[in-house]
């Protein structure tokens, strides 16, 4: 029987082939072709690109074929909530949902953060809403005074739970979600969101240089939100671990990264599979940084 470790090693090899193919296909090859007058060299490089493209397609086909076997039952009897960040790709969101489904997870719904929240331009208004929406018998962490941490802690208290701990009441959940939505800070579909044990926060590409503290808001949200549950993963595209982007902020701060795993290549089929593997590990208190971006410790979990 093939072990999970062997599957992970296979996935690492597949991902490296994918990374090489993408690197050659964008930028490097274009520069070589554009500057060369040697027709034979151009033809040879194009042949190499075609061959690598074929390998990339084969890698994706392999991932599609192996995913059901690798993920089957991985998150059985676990409930998972999906949180999306402005700029997250719809394709990435759908891909993450697919691997969660293949893992046997129970989908607890989807909540979207808004530009008004991560832009942090209405902190006073947000603070007022958060203070009025704390569930009965719950105390938010006093050290979390920033917008991301504060709303993450509140939403975590409403929608996350550790193990078999009792969730917040339906009345408290409904009132808290409604207040945040009316304030313009989150989006969700009525009657389609419930408490969950685990969470995946999906972000997008590298944040622009003029994005201000948006990456910090997202990273602090993910850390505070995940701390209320049994495990969480912050997943983003290539570039999300650079500059002031959310995964870069998370990985640079030990107080944030010690409780939340990260995956920096969710646009790739490999990255989506790794997201499910990382979430299963997080549920066992095994947190890690995965992908090929700055701060990643491995391409995928080894166990």
UniProtKB/TrEMBL annotation:
It holds the Pfam family MctB. This is Copper transport outer membrane protein, MctB. It comes from Williamsia maris.
């Amino acid at each position: 029987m093939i072990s999970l470790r062997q599957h992970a090693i296979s996935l690492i090899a597949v991902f490296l082939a994918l990374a090489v193919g993408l690197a050659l296909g964008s930028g490097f090859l274009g520069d070589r072709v554009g500057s060369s007058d040697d027709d034979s060299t151009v033809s040879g490089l194009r042949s190499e690109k075609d061959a690598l493209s074929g390998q990339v397609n084969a890698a994706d086909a392999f991932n599609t074929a192996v995913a059901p076997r690798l993920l089957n039952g991985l998150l059985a009897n676990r409930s998972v909530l999906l949180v999306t960040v402005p700029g997250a790709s719809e394709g990435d969101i759908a891909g993450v949902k697919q691997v969660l489904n293949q893992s046997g997870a129970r989908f607890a719904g989807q909540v979207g953060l808004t530009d008004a929240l991560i832009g942090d331009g209405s902190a006073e208004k947000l603070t007022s809403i958060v203070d009025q929406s704390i569930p009965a018998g719950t105390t938010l962490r006093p050290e979390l005074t920033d917008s991301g941490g504060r709303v993450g802690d509140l939403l975590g208290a409403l929608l996350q739970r550790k193990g078999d701990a009792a969730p917040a009441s339906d009345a408290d959940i409904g009132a808290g979600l409604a207040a945040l939505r009316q304030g313009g800070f989150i989006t969700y579909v009525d009657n389609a969101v419930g408490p969950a044990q685990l969470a995946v926060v999906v972000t997008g590409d590298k944040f622009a240089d003029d994005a201000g503290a948006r990456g910090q808001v997202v990273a602090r949200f993910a850390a505070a939100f995940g701390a209320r549950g049994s495990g969480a993963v912050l997943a983003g595209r290539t570039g999300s671990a650079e500059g002031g982007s959310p995964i870069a902020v998370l990985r640079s701060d030990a107080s944030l990264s010690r409780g939340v795993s990260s995956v920096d290549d969710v646009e790739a089929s490999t990255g989506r599979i790794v997201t499910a593997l990382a979430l299963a590990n997080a549920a066992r208190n095994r947190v890690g940084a995965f992908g090929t971006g700055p701060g990643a410790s491995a391409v995928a979990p080894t166990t």
